[in-house]
Amino acid sequence: MTDARYLKRTILKDEIFSTYLNRTRNLRIYLPPGYNEILSYPVVYCQDGEEFFNFGRIATHANRLILDEGIEPFIIVGVEVDTSIRTQEYAPFGSMFKAYTACFAEEIIPYIEDKYPIRRDASERILAGDSLGGSVSLHLALMYPHLFRRVISLSGAFYEASQQIYAEKHDLSWLSVWMIVGLQETQFISDTGTYDFVELNRQTKALLEARGASVSYEEKEGQHLWGFWQNQLPDALSYFLNRS
């Protein structure tokens, strides 16, 4: 049974109007136990924000890690997405990719950091995403290296178009990526085709490491589902937030 302390979560809902996207974007903000505006906090920004909270149970995981595992308290910002245009925003070949990435880095980040006591150093910001959310998180880090240096990728959808962009980079020694993929993800059917996510993740790991990035990579039994990713989140968060 889940400890009741883990379920006492402070989750706020907010929204921001994006001039790049010409629409409103909903946000979910998790504040840690003992939250104090006088202090400052690292932050995890999640693509597919609603899913990270509802299916990934990231707020419950965060409470347990902070209360029982000694992880430094941190804030979580879930950036919600309209699933009907998700590929257009998250994929580099999507019609809204440039607008979405600009919105994320140039509108959402300043908005959150003006409102909450978040540390402004790139090493204190973590990007997290599943599938295409993982690949767009990596794109954001490469596009805005002054803002992001740490990425959590859950079964990243590292299609050829993304790999070509990564391959154009020469020095990624500043980048740290935590990656996991399920061994049963070899024939995943998406809206753009059928893909071997295991092979795509292996290729991307090799691309990143060849350019000096620090990569924590693992393959486990699992499918391209939140039932798999949910159980990986504590290790992913601990990897970047455990200061011991």
Write the layout of secondary structure elements.
Elements: H1 4-7, E1 10-18, E2 23-31, E3 43-46, H2 49-54, H3 58-68, E4 75-79, H4 86-90, H5 97-115, E5 125-130, H6 132-143, E6 150-154, H7 160-167, E7 176-182, E8 188-190, E9 193-195, H8 197-210, E10 214-220, H9 226-229, H10 233-241
Parallel strand pairs: 3-4, 3-5, 5-6, 6-7, 7-10
Antiparallel strand pairs: 1-2, 2-4, 8-9
Keywords: Hydrolase
Protein name: Alpha/beta hydrolase-fold protein
Organism: Paenibacillus lacisoli
What does this entry look like structurally?
It is a single chain. With 244 residues, the protein is of the alpha/beta class. The protein has a single domain, classed as Alpha/Beta hydrolase fold, catalytic domain (Rossmann fold, 3-Layer(aba) Sandwich). The chain has helices spanning 4-7, 49-54, 58-68, 86-90, 97-115, 132-143, 160-167, 197-210, 226-229, 233-241, and strands at residues 10-18, 23-31, 43-46, 75-79, 125-130, 150-154, 176-182, 188-190, 193-195, 214-220. The strands form two sheets. Strands 1-2-4-3-5-6-7-10 form an eight-stranded mixed beta sheet, with helices on both faces. A two-stranded antiparallel ribbon has the order 8-9. Helix 3 (58-68) packs across helix 10 (233-241) and helix 7 (160-167) packs parallel to helix 8. One of its GO terms (molecular function) is hydrolase activity. This is Alpha/beta hydrolase-fold protein.
